[in-house]
Specification:
Layout lengths: L1 H14 L4 E2 L8 E2 L8 H5 L8 E6 L1 H4 L2 H13 L6 H21 L6 E10 L2 E9 L18 E2 L10 E8 L2 H15 L2 H18 L3 H7 E19 L8 E14 L3 H13 L3 E6 L2 E6 L12 E5 L2 E5 L2 H12 L9 H6 L6 E2 L1 E5 L1 H16 L4 H12 L6 E8 L2 E8 L6 H51 L9 H4 L17 E2 L8 E2 L8
Antiparallel strand pairs: 1-2, 3-4, 4-5, 5-17, 6-14, 7-8, 7-15, 8-9, 9-13, 10-11, 11-12, 12-13, 15-16, 16-17, 18-19
Length: 522
């Protein structure tokens, strides 16, 4: 990441610099005309100047004719001496795959990238990203796979006020499948062609659903919704007798837009044959099946599948689906009515092909869980360092909308994270998460090893006590001194607790003890 960011930033800066001459013969300053066409004007016209981030990168000279350039590599690779014929054939096929992908993807249509961000309030940023192509030039599956044109964000009307994280995206699955099939057929590799011919048969055998029927039933929009109900706190038991962790009651719902009930009907049939107790709801606008789960969980779990209002729902509770449909019907207030969403949605498009909502309470809950995990598994110094990393993203919140416009893919977002940190996200966040996971695990492993070593010491001391008492005819209630036991210990030295605990020898008839909790002979 570091190696990539520096040259990227340099190229971004250089691409925005105008070239000027000192003066013409008459003494007037002259600005050179650009020798190469760029999309600077088109891209920057859709950005917000004057903020804390403003970047433009022209890509026409890089990407124009890229497939032909890749194809030319065929001659270079084929000129490698002593290359076996089968290897040359494989290289030729691989180049064909890459060339065909680039041609059909629409990657060569990208003419520029623009990014801007401006602080509307202190700590509240309005950001835009544009992947640009000229009007009429957006051909290829990259420009149609995730939605061909923006549409009203109707899925927002399914979200309750308890929504902590929601992301919805258009995806043309039939187009994706046909693209994969076509690329496999053009690859020249029989194995790839055969694999994608067999895949529908395997799917049908495993699910009992016709592949083409499933593809035809999909409506092209999919979403994931995570809820956190702060009015109902649940207690999560922790190991080691620690106080339980309290978090808002969680819930999960997967949503898919559908054209018919084919998938639901197949699931319904499978539930009939499963032998589970299933609660059924059949109404004109809602068919729902709920399975009881007799598990002692700290939060309600009743796996539910339903179809209604043109959507297929899979949720952890039937109440989630009923609430989503009630929000859509307007009988109960939803996420759009909350002050948090209204603030985040300012100056964002009402239409798009994708949106993501992240509530501040989601980041806060994750941060609380991480800090509690650190508190129970690492030293104070390690915990202090790790918490500085976690705090940078604790309480993050945002709302973003992306859309496939006439001039490319435009993303607009509001949130409290400075957009400049996006250059470091892929380095800082994984590192901090890895530290948050790996260090506690390593600390736990170290604690277990130290406890086991101490228990081994206690066994050695107990054995030495008995040997000392037997050799010196001591009564069971006699308490020896450390010096008395040295001749009966390994290496003639008294063992030391690796965690710094103090040993109490006790009487011969009693087990020795360590002052550290858990360091006890069974």
């Amino acid at each position: 990441m570091k190696l990539f960011v520096v040259p990227l930033l340099v190229s971004l800066v250089l691409s925005t610099v105008s070239v000027t001459t000192a003066a013409d013969p008459g003494g007037a300053a002259v600005t050179n005309a650009f020798a190469e066409k760029t999309s600077f004007q088109e891209v920057t016209a859709q950005l917000d100047p004057g903020g804390n981030l403003y970047l433009y990168l022209g890509t026409e000279q890089w990407l124009d004719g890229l497939s032909a350039k890749i194809s030319n590599w065929r001659q270079l690779l084929g000129s490698i001496p002593d290359l076996p014929d089968d290897a040359r054939e494989t290289i030729d096929k691989a180049v064909n795959i890459v060339t065909n992908l680039i041609k059909s993807s629409g990657l060569e249509n990208i003419s520029g990238l623009g990014v801007s961000s401006i602080a509307r309030e202190k700590g509240f940023y309005h950001s835009k990203v544009l992947v640009h192509h000229y009007p009429g030039h957006g051909s290829g599956f990259l420009w149609s796979l995730f939605g061909q044109k923006p549409h009203p964000l109707d899925a927002l009307n399914l979200l309750s006020t308890n929504t902590a994280l929601a992301t919805f995206c258009d995806l043309d699955v039939p187009l994706l499948w046909s693209t994969i099939q076509r690329q496999a057929e053009q690859s020249g590799f029989p194995q790839a062609t055969e694999l994608f011919k067999e895949l529908p048969e395997r799917f049908e055998k495993a699910t009992g659903l016709k592949w083409d029927q499933v593809l035809a039933s999909l409506g092209g929009e999919y979403g994931l919704v995570l809820g956190l109900n702060e009015s109902k706190m649940v207690r999560i038991p922790l190991p080691g007798g620690e106080d339980p962790l309290e978090i808002p009651e969680p819930s999960l719902m997967i949503v898919a837009k559908t054209k018919d009930d084919s998938i639901f009907n197949r699931i319904d049939t499978a539930l009939d044959k499963s032998g589970h107790t299933v609660f059924r709801t059949d109404k004109p606008n809602l068919k729902m099946r709920t399975v009881t789960v007799p598990l002692p969980l700290p939060f309600p779990l009743a796996p539910t599948v339903a179809t209604g209002e043109g959507y297929l729902f899979i949720a952890t509770s039937d109440l989630l689906i009923q609430e989503a449909l009630a929000v859509k019907a307007g009988t109960v207030p939803g996420l759009k009515s909350t002050a948090e969403f209204k603030r985040l949605a300012r100056e964002t498009p009402a239409s798009g092909n994708q949106f993501t909502f992240l509530s501040q309470r989601f980041g806060k809950t994750i941060g609380d869980i991480q800090r509690r995990a650190l508190a129970s598994s690492v030293s104070a110094s390690q915990r202090e360092w790790l918490e500085t990393l976690l705090d940078k993203n604790a309480g993050a919140y945002l709302y973003s909308v992306g859309g496939n416009t006439e001039q490319g893919w435009l993303g607009v977002a509001n949130g409290n994270q400075h957009p400049g940190t996006l250059f470091l996200v892929s380095a800082v966040v994984p590192a901090s998460m890895l530290a948050a996971i790996a260090l506690p695990a390593a600390a736990k492993a170290k604690n277990v090893a130290q406890r086991n070593k101490c228990i081994a010491n206690l066994r050695q001391i107990d054995r030495a006590k008995k040997d000392w008492a037997l050799e010196n005819n001591k009564a069971d209630d006699t308490v020896p001194k450390k010096a008395d036991l040295l001749p009966f210990l390994q290496s003639k030295q008294f063992p030391v607790c690796p965690s710094g605990g103090d040993y109490s020898l006790n009487a011969v008839s009693e087990q020795p003890e360590c002052s550290i909790d858990g360091h006890t002979l069974p």
